[in-house]
């Protein structure tokens, strides 16, 4: 197993040589500023972020999992062998969310969240394997990572954590602050903190086939044009309840008809579903459309929320924009612009209904974010809008 180190990050080279193919280390690309643990826990409590405390280590083969909310007083007094994990931190912190701007060479609908792992010396969550791609970015301290491409996939049933029962690493590497380890889905890994450290995990998730089939079935169930029912014919008079070969063939045909979407219908379903899948469900303060429109009329841009998920599809009329599970009617030029820049430009003033819809979908950033992303906005007072 070989692990390359990229000293200068190139998205084109990364996509061609590493993405969903093999792990690599990337240096000099990302430099997140570590959050103090107390601040991280405050964010988790105030925004109801999923939080876990994992205690244990490989030598003792004893692991304990505690679910949050957690406060500093709830943490172990020991200076070894525990880790705090907080998911969706990008939804609660604009500073953390800013890191995602470096990942926009990947589809918006695949970018899931940033999870922060804060650990004391020896802290770990045990050897495991993820079904999604992940970038493990070292924000502070050092963490040693053991990796394996070939491994025994049996889980240890003794613990709530999905840990691999037998762990034999194939290589090991230590990450320093500012370094990132990319792991494609299916690469087993085990990280151990070498002293206090903090790691930011940028997850890229996509749904499985069964998950998409379930969502498609829900969508088709409301389609009034797909109401043909299974016929009851070729009955076995000796045993009427027996499913005959003819009936099984009719079932297969009915299912095939239900799944035979043309490209336009498939694109519409996929755009809505992928931009909605695993959407963050936390409480947010709605942004008033009038405030957004007033800002745009003054020539300023308004950024999208970090949690906004976008997908673009093609239709007979051109490019279609999907945001957080809904189609947003706007010109193709604006759809492409928004997907590329994740900002509403002044051109959106002419489409107030679309702006209102984006606000209702919680796809627009809070006003404080407007100032951070557009220096021109510093020349005005938000209160004036």
Question: In words, what does this structure look like?
Answer:
With 385 residues, the protein is of the alpha+beta class. It has three domains: 4-204, Cupin (Jelly Rolls), CATH 2.60.120; 209-260, no CATH class; 289-384, no CATH class. The protein is built from ten helices and 17 strands. The protein has helices at 11-17, 37-46, 94-97, 209-221, 245-259, 263-276, 289-297, 332-341, 352-360, 367-373; strands spanning 4-6, 24-26, 51-57, 62-67, 82-86, 111-119, 133-140, 143-148, 171-175, 180-183, 188-193, 197-204, 302-303, 310-315, 318-323, 326-328, 343-344. The strands form four sheets. A nine-stranded mixed β-sheet has the order 1-2-10-7-12-6-5-3-4, covered by helices on one side. Strands 9-8-11 form a three-stranded antiparallel β-sheet, with no helix packed on it. Strands 14-15-16 form a three-stranded antiparallel β-sheet, sandwiched between helices. The radius of gyration is 24 Å and the shape is globular.
Output mean pLDDT: 90
CATH fold node name of the largest domain: Jelly Rolls
Report how far the terminal alpha carbons are from each other.
57 Å
Q: Determine the fraction of residues in helical runs and give it as a percent range.
A: 25-40%
List the helices and strands and how they pair.
Layout: E1 4-6, H1 11-17, E2 24-26, H2 37-46, E3 51-57, E4 62-67, E5 82-86, H3 94-97, E6 111-119, E7 133-140, E8 143-148, E9 171-175, E10 180-183, E11 188-193, E12 197-204, H4 209-221, H5 245-259, H6 263-276, H7 289-297, E13 302-303, E14 310-315, E15 318-323, E16 326-328, H8 332-341, E17 343-344, H9 352-360, H10 367-373
Parallel strand pairs: 1-2
Antiparallel strand pairs: 2-10, 3-4, 3-5, 5-6, 6-12, 7-10, 7-12, 8-9, 8-11, 13-17, 14-15, 15-16
Helix pairs in contact: 7-9
